[in-house]
Design goal:
The chain has six helices and 13 strands. The chain has about 220 residues and is of the alpha/beta class. The chain folds into three domains: about 70 residues, 2-Layer Sandwich (Histidine-containing Protein, Chain: A), CATH 3.30.1340.30; about 70 residues, Histidine-containing Protein, Chain: A; about 60 residues, 2-Layer Sandwich (Alpha-Beta Plaits). The longest helix is centred in the first third of the chain and has 14 residues. The radius of gyration is 19 Å and the shape is flat.
Length: about 220
């Protein structure tokens, strides 16, 4: 089956995003508003969990024609969460302890329903695991991720190794990407067809043992 990809109007994109939100079983889309302007989609409204907020953004980015998402959704867990702050702190701590790939160096500080993550880790996937563990805890309205990567030595061959890894990745076949490395920062440029491909390219880059920052400037061109 071939799916045509004509230019889409703002109304078409708005409708498609609304349909995708409705199609996502983890979301109650009734409280989320959608506006579209030239491929930029703004999400507004209120949800009861931080996980729903993240799911709404991911759903919007799956829609063809969406180039960027502005997340103005408010999380209000107070309407569905009645436990004490001490209970919430225990839930957060358990989430970190029971999640694989989260080192003991990761710390969390609670201020109401806001969780601030700090500490130093070896790999970016460890930082991501910690963030995902906390965002799934009921009662958390926002995750402030201040986790840093340990200092790494630079390598003149790092850009070439990253480019080779990008070329090996089957999901990135047919894309036009370039890598520039300065010290331990990798800058990604070029274009892909989907946000999933853009995310994959960034994850591939983070696997380098010589990178502490990724400047992802890859554009998403659906047409």
């Amino acid at each position: 089956m071939t799916i045509a990809t004509p230019l889409r109007s703002d109304h078409d994109i708005q409708t498609a995003v609304e349909d995708e939100l409705d199609w996502s079983p983890e979301l109650d889309a009734a409280g989320i508003g959608v506006a579209a302007d030239g491929g930029a989609v703004s999400l507004s409204g209120e949800v009861t969990t931080y996980l729903q907020r993240m799911a709404a953004t991911k759903a919007a980015l799956r829609v063809r024609g969406v180039r960027t998402v502005v997340d103005n959704i408010i999380v209000n867990s107070s309407s569905s969460y009645t436990q004490t702050e001490t209970d919430l702190a225990k839930s957060v701590q358990r989430a970190l302890e029971f999640t694989a790939g989260v080192p003991a160096t990761v710390k969390v500080e609670l201020n109401g329903h806001v969780a601030k993550l700090s500490g130093e880790v070896q790999w970016n996937f460890e930082r991501g695991n910690a963030h995902r563990a906390i965002q799934s805890v009921k009662g958390i309205d926002f995750v402030d991720d201040l986790i840093t990567l340990r200092t790494r030595p630079g390598n003149a061959a790092a850009a070439g190794h990253i480019e080779a890894a990008l070329e090996r990745n089957a999901s990135l076949h047919g894309t036009d990407l370039a890598v520039q490395v300065t010290d331990t920062t990798a800058k990604l440029t070029g274009s892909v067809r989907t946000w999933a491909q853009r995310h994959t390219a960034e994850n591939v880059t983070w696997a380098s043992p010589h990178i502490t920052h990724v400047d992802n400037q890859i554009s998403v061109n659906w047409f």
